[in-house]
Amino acid sequence: MTLPSLSSSAFSVLRTPVLVLGLASILVLAGCGSSGTRRVSYETEEFDSTTTHTRSYAATEAQTCEAARRALLSQGYMISAANADLVTGRKSFQPASEVHVEVEFRVVCAREGGKAGKRSTVAFATALQDRYGIKKVNNSASVGVGAFGSLSMPFAGSDDAMVKVASETLTDELFYDRFFALLDRFLEGQGGEEPEAPSVAPEAPRPAAPLNPAAPATTFPVKPVPNPG
Predict the structure, then answer these.
(1) Which ranges in 51-95 belong to alpha helices (H)?
(2) Residue 130 pairs with which residues in a beta bridge?
(3) Which is nearest to 122 in space by CA: 51, 45, 49?
(4) Is 74 helix (H, G, I), strand (E, B) or coil?
(5) Among 28, 60, 154, 197, which residue's beta carbon has the most beta carbons within 10 A?
(6) Which of 54, 65, 67, 56 is nearest to 191 (CA)?
(7) pLDDT, tens digit, for every residue of 126-163?
(8) Distance CA 55, CA 228 (A)
(9) Residue 122 has pLDDT above 70, yes or no
């Protein structure tokens, strides 16, 4: 039994789908490999610096956070929360006509042990930047005409909406240096540490007044009374 022979043109027709399938498989595998080895931004976090977001002050928590509140207010931040150990503020920026940026600043004041019994506070500052962009939103409406039954006339339009496109924690050292320098200036205006209550020496006890010596008892002679019997 003899098999029919295939011409070269038939082989080329059969070979083309095989090559296409093999090329597609290679592209899929290459895509999977690249996605598995793709680096993400947080892999660069080394946790090796403690000076960008922190400063120490010779003051109480309440004094440090109050100075931070005044520093943010002086720069146009809207304060959303303020107490003895936490201050948060928010400010809006418009770097371009279709770009809106908001920065939320947060300061946490924590007590820290000082030398020779002096109180010290460490201030942690973090700024989060949210970026918004304008996005076109299409909408349509139809108006029915009663005289023509079900006839309607569609109207199409679009509205502009602000959509968050990015969110990032600011890590610029100069940005935080300027804030901490301003905080230090307001803290100096408060007088630094709380004044200690002056110590009052205990009053020395007054000497007791000497008691007058008791006068000696005076005796009078008693005449004997004769016994009548």
Answers:
(1) 61-74
(2) 102, 167
(3) 51
(4) helix
(5) 60
(6) 67
(7) 999 999 998 877 665 555 555 555 555 555 566 778 89
(8) 112
(9) yes
Beta partners for residue 133, in sequence order: 99, 163
Q: Where are the alpha helices (DSSP H) in 117-208?
A: 173-189
Please state the φ and ψ torsions of residue 45, each to the nearest 5 degrees: -70, 115
CB 87, CB 74: distance < 8 Å: no
CA gap 32, 10 in Å, rounded: 35
Torsion of CA 64, 65, 70, 72, to 10 degrees: 120
Q: Is the pTM for the entire model greater than 0.90?
A: no
Give the DSSP H or E segment for 153: strand 152-169
Class of domain 50-139+156-189: alpha beta
Per the CB < 8 A criterion, the answer to whether 186 and 67 are in contact is yes
**212: amino acid identity, one letter:** N
**For the packed helices 61-74 and 173-189, what is the interaxial angle rounded to 10 degrees?**
110
